[in-house]
Amino acid sequence: MxxxxxxxLHHPALPKxxxxxxxxxxxxxxxxxxxxxxxxxxSAAIVQACFELALPPHRIAKxxxxxxxxxxxxxxxxxxxxxxxxxxxxxxxxxxxxLANRDLIYLGVSGDGDSASIGLGQFAHVxxxxxxxxxIVENNGVYGxxxxxxxxxxxxxSKSKRxxxxxxxxxxxxxxxxxxxxxxxxxxxSGDKEQLVPVIMAALRHHGAAFIxxxxxxxxFNNHLGSTKSFDYVREHNDAVNRLDVIEGRAEITAExxxxxxxNVVQHDGSVxxxxxxxxxxxxxxxxxxxxxxxxxxxxxxxxxxxxxxxxEAHDLHDHIETVETPLNALGEAELIxxxxxxxxxxxxxx
Amino acid sequence: MLPTDTRSPDYFHKxxxxxxxxxxxxxxxxxxxxxxxxxxxDAYMVNWQSNVFPGILGRTCDRPCEPACRxxxxxxxxxxxxxxxxxAADNKDDVQALLPKAPAKANGKRIALVGAGPASLTxxxxxxxxxxxxxxxxxxxxxxxxxxxxxxxxxxPESVIDEEVGYITGIGGIELCLGRRVDSMKALLAEGxxxxxxGSGAPRGRxxxxxxxxxxxANIHIGIDWLSSVSFGHVDKIGKRVIVLGGGNTAMDCxxxxxxxxxxxxxxxxxxxxxxxxxxxxxxxxAMHEDIPIxxxxxxxxxxxxxxxxxxxxFEKVKAEYDAKGRRKLVPTGEPDQNFExxxxxxxxxxxxxxxxxxxxxGIAFDQWNMPKVDPKTMASTHPKVFFGGDAAFxxxxxxxxxxxxxxxAISIDKLVNGEDIxxxxxxxxxxxxxxxxxxxxxxxxxxxxxxxxxxxLREKNVALKDVRLEVELGFDQKLGYLEAERxxxxxxxxxxTAPLCIECDACxxxxxxxxxTFTENGDETDLRQRLNQPARNLSQALxxxxxxxxxRIMAKDEDVCLHCGLCAERCPTGxxxxxxxxxxxxxxxxxxxxR
Lengths: 351, 596
Description:
The structure holds two protein chains of two kinds. Chain A is an alpha/beta fold. Chain A has a single domain (about 25-320), classed as Rossmann fold (3-Layer(aba) Sandwich). In chain A, about 30% of the residues lie in helices and about 20% in strands. In chain A, strand 7 (about 185-190), helix 7 and strand 8 (about 210-215) form a beta-alpha-beta unit. The longest helix of chain A is centred in the N-terminal third of the chain and has 15 residues, at about 40-50. Chain A starts with about 35 loop residues before the first helix and ends with a helix. The chains are: A alpha/beta, B alpha/beta. The interface between A and B is large, with 35 and 37 residues.
């Protein structure tokens, strides 16, 4: 079996961003996942988001664990930094890297097995600590690499490809992220890039722990009747609360919107998130309201998507522990080893 | 937009830009794949069936296919289609056994062909195997027409002409009446032929009537007559300083021939701008490569001479001015005239038809320019039994157009003789077949070569310029031929979409290297073209639009720069995309062209 590399030839009118890169410059190696895998669409959305934000690829670090989803960093951002960690241990590697060099953009990519099963503890703590990152879970509700067993996010009552019903309760990663203090929480769908790309862009611009749960149908093992993570099921039950635009710099509002349907959220770095509300009374700054709404819709069998919660004034781990502005890995020997006098002073302060 | 109707043969045919642009619609990607596979004989026969003169055209074709080639839109240059044809001709085995033969029993019908050039020879090739008795008349001692008389031997060796003309005359049932110029249509009609085809070309070079023309006549030659004399060996030298007037391909042949017959200071001088010259860009390049400067915006005013000997040409300097409608006018710049000294002048400023031999009262209508009224589809004149083709039909064009005319005229003649309406033209033979062999395996080489166009190796200049009969191009060898063939994008392997199978997973959109696939809401064409992932600005290329999908959206594919790499089909989980080879063969004269 051979896989062709994607041909180098591209559309002659392919646009370039401020850095002079085309979207193709943000791609990685050709995917070896199954044809039609939702994860490939998420990779394409990440490529698109990084291109549109004109992020310098060498300033991005992509980290992952084990699983189909965790293979995907090979398939995007081919010239960025990468770390493929032990199963479920991506969050601690990411935390360590972030502590050593706070200047990079951290993109954690994980799946429902990697984050909701073996890595559930790590998932909880990295969000709780507010590490500045984008944490994407490519959630297909199934163990694809081991041929289709239920995962920890499979909905109760959903059916496997062989017709077996899942009797265990699912872990709702979005609900956990809200409860654990993540300052940017969104859910989206691999089959809807118009929603997904701006969500990823907004998360990349967020200062703090950003979590995105992306429903990503597994075409090989979880795209059948009875599945709650199939293309058809998600499209039928998708309850999008808002649509998002990301604007760099000052917002310019050209289109007319009915009162109460548009909200501009100015983030830490000056970027503007323009929320076009689909549910007029959904408030994306109300953590408790979001949790209640999610529970309610979930009970009704709906999948709530969109930007569910954002705190534009969020703080991250470095703010909490008051580290220096300069990344630790850029400090010189003098700053890192201040000498015995400094140590004595510190010890004295603790007596 | 309505869903695209791919059942119409034109839809997928247009996607194969080269085949669509070729007047005789040669299945180009099909024979290029055969060349890549080393099946030169098969590649030759695909060509021979369609364009009759692969070895000749592989060296001389005007190549309408190459400017159309999709490769030229995604990188710098198109595939060297023309020179690949020569690779097939150079490397084939003996094809004699594959050629048709006239049946033992003739069908009793007699057809006269006037002129033994490419148009007439095509008619003969198409009709002789059907049992027709074909009589070809030509004033020249050998068959071939302008192929033999006007194209210099250093571009096209005589052996190639003899071989490919021989393939036709060898069919049988063809009588060659060479050295016999037809001088009366009335008399020819009286001989009772079932049909007459006029393929007598545009044999008269245009005259340049300016002061000094008569006095210096001994050293002023009409380009095509002079080339013909060189071809038949009547002329073998020219002065050291030569001026060629004219900017077409004949002018390029004249100047390059001069360089080989003793011309050391050879110039081409044209009235118009360099860019507007009629000559093909590669022919201009070839001339300049042989140290022949091309001077532009100079209008010849008079020939200078002393004692009846040409001494030079005086030119008026002009510039181009454009009026409100964009029409160009050459106006004098007011600068002093320029005088160029020379020993000989070759006049190659155009060709004309000469139908003095057709009496105007035989029922063949002529238009105000003294050209016969010819139907471009059937090649019929206003006389029910007389057909025209090649340069004789619509003025000077090129060999491949003459071949196309010949095919069409042969169909008309065959239908006429069988009592059918010649206006009912036969549809082409069309076949569409999946190329899928496995999950990631196709029966064509779908990897895209990143190679740039290969140059055809040339004989060393100082050697080439010594002999007017020594072929200057060496042609691609098998290795270069393979590499160039791999540049072909296989545009005939079509992306075929089956809407009911699509689950809208976006896999094809994500993998497409040229962003030609979009899933979006339907709209009218202008609107849709703007809303695609990459707006479709090339209006000459179609949008492939599907029926509504489950979400109500449609699939819209811009055919413009599709690489036909098949990755959409490789990444499609449901087989909604498939790569299917579209083979279109034009129907030729014979039972298949009959309506019943």
